[in-house]
Amino acid sequence: MATYFVLLGPPGAGKGTQAKLAAERLGLAHVSSGDLFRENLSAKTELGMLAKGFMDRGELVPDDVTIAMVRDRLQRPDCKNGALLDGFPRTPAQAEALEAMLSEFGGNVSVAPYINVPMDVLIERLSGRWSCRAAGHVYHEKYNPPKVAGKCDMDGSELYQRDDDKAETVRRRIEVYLNQTAPLLVHYRQKGALVEIDGTLPIDDVSRELMQHLGAAQS
Ligand code: AP5
User: Fold this and answer.
1) Given a cut of 90, is residue 164 above it in pLDDT?
2) Which of 49, 58, 151, 169 is the most exposed place for a label (fewest CB within 10 A)?
3) Which of 18, 21, 33 should be mutated for ligand 1, with most atoms under 8 A from CB?
4) E strands of the chain, at which residues?
């Protein structure tokens, strides 16, 4: 049976940072809805153009579009053993759609780690974030700087700051998270899948704790 994990947490909690490390260690596909939208945006696809307006305003892209995109991604061969989902689901309707999809594919969400970071830390994290153009590897100018300024340690590609990391857009993204996504914590707690991780710890400590939960569920 395929294994699926759902990484939860507010914008800037460290979901992308941790998902990249954990997916590699577990040999699972990393499926990030935000990365999928950004890939479509740089390829100037119709989906990317549609998503842009919502992303620039810090709003969620409509459920039907997002669900169809993730469904398509989860059907690719690298997801045959499951996936580590990052940024999806983000609404109760997306969570329901995911459950229907996974029962069709033969799997379920075994653990939903929630990376808990207080709201006041998030703005500083996002304003200092730099991401790589080639693969979305994530850095922070103070907490996780690259070895050479402006260049990705992993693939040497250029680092850039995301358009939606402007303070005003970040505030809206946090509001949207509290209104539309935070209710999923109750949903996954009721299912017995939620585990809470202290996301204020250094990156390596968060990784260690996360891997304990994911590794135990996978073995
Ligand atoms: P998305 O790309 O998913 O953004 P997000 O959820 O807002 O999350 P972020 O990527 O901003 O943060 P993160 O938790 O991954 O943190 P990171 O590891 O980078 O979504 C963007 C937009 O796409 C949405 O606003 C929406 O429009 C659309 N969208 C996406 N999914 C959707 C969906 N399902 N439905 C509808 N619309 C959707 O870390 C942040 C910074 O902190 C980095 O600089 C990092 O180096 C640093 N850091 C990480 N961990 C630590 C630590 N422990 N200590 C110190 N610094 C740390």
Assistant:
1) yes
2) 49
3) 33
4) 2-7, 29-32, 82-86, 107-116, 129-132, 138-140, 159-160, 194-198
Q: What is the percent of the chain with per-residue pLDDT over 90, rounded to a whole number?
A: 93
Burial degree of 42 (CB within 10 A; 0-12, 13-18, 19+): exposed
State the Cα–Cα distance between residues 52 and 212, nearest whole angstrom.
36
User: In this predicted structure, what is the pLDDT of residue 217?
Assistant: 78
Domains, the chain = 3-117+180-218 (3.40.50.300)
Residues with CB under 6 A from ligand 1: 9, 11-17, 33-34, 37, 54-55, 58-61, 66, 87-88, 90, 94, 125-126, 128-129, 138-140, 143-144, 164, 173, 199, 201-203, 206
Radius of gyration of the chain (CA): 16
**136-175 burial by CB neighbour count: b if 16+ within 10 A, else e?**
bbbbbeeebebeeeebbeeeeeebeebebbeeebbeebbe
Mean pLDDT for the chain? 95
